[in-house]
Write a structure and sequence with these properties.
Number of strands of chain B: 11
Number of helices of chain A: 0
Low-confidence stretches of chain A: none
Order of helices and strands of chain B: EEEEEEEEEEE
Shape of chain A: globular
Radius of gyration of chain B: 13 Å
Helix content of chain A: under 10%
Largest interface: A-B, 27 and 26 residues
Structural class of chain B: mainly beta
Low-confidence stretches of chain B: none
Mean pLDDT of chain B: 92
Order of helices and strands of chain A: EEEEEEEEEEEE
Distance between the termini of chain B: 37 Å
Oligomer: heterodimer
Mean pLDDT of chain A: 93
Shape of chain B: globular
Structural class of chain A: mainly beta
Largest sheet of chain A: 6 strands, mixed
Number of helices of chain B: 0
Chain lengths: 111, 115
């Protein structure tokens, strides 16, 4: 079945540092890939998505590229802010009409 | 434009009881999915409703059931509650006709505590 493996946290960075959160997946066919963010006490918000190989999703300074050859969708940001502190989830929509999520990565950005 | 809304926000139940959670989808959306998120974990898919029928189901027992109404709102029912059912229950809405490339919008969730 479909699965998502995500970099384990927690991750702690200083403000303006570079962020990478690794995500790899297993799926049949050509899934769509997503990054969601969850702030404390809130539901999930879609951060970015990519629907086919080599697509780059981007939003709010975050980027991720759909790499079919390495089955990866790593999240990056060049300069993180304190307000980026949250839990980040990688997810895929495969042959089943559902989202399969990774276990989440807690990011804390210190001023 | 109202987003996805869920009620109640928090709920405390006793083992063996039954609970009903409610969800109203984002305006214009016709598909509702339910997820269970245990503390420190990623959401797990429970089931999806489209055109008032369960279209897809995850690996959850029959104690979990649902319903979708003609206005696309949905309910999640859990019978014979167990301590392990304590979690954040998330509702997500989307457009069914978008198929595999759909984008789901999540509500704030209902925090269920079973004692």
């Amino acid at each position: 079945g479909d699965s998502v493996t995500q970099m384990e946290g927690p991750v702690t960075l200083s403000e303006e540092a570079f962020l990478t959160i690794n995500c790899t997946y297993t799926a049949t066919g050509y899934p769509s890939l997503f990054w969601y963010v969850q702030y404390p006490g809130e539901g999930l918000q879609l951060l970015l998505k990519a629907t086919k190989a080599d697509d780059k999703g981007s939003n709010k300074g975050f980027e991720a590229t759909y790499r079919k050859e390495t089955t990866s969708f790593h999240l990056e940001k060049g300069s993180v802010q304190v307000s980026d502190s949250a839990v980040y989830f990688c997810a895929l929509a495969g042959s089943a009409r559902q989202l399969t999520f990774g276990s989440g990565t807690q990011l804390t950005v210190l001023p | 434009d109202a987003g996805v809304t869920q009620s109640p926000t928090h709920l405390i139940k006793t083992r063996g009881q039954q609970v009903t959670l409610r969800c109203s989808p984002k305006s214009g959306h016709d598909t509702v999915s339910w997820y269970q998120q245990a503390l420190g974990q990623g959401p797990q898919f429970i089931f999806q409703y489209y055109e008032e029928e369960e279209r897809q189901r995850g690996n959850f027992p029959d104690r979990f059931s649902g319903h979708q109404f003609p206005n696309y709102s949905s309910e999640l029912n859990v019978n014979a509650l167990l301590l392990g059912d304590s979690a954040l229950y998330l509702c997500a809405s989307s457009l069914g006709r978008q198929g595999l490339r759909y984008e789901q919008y999540f509500g704030p969730g209902t925090r269920l505590t079973v004692t």
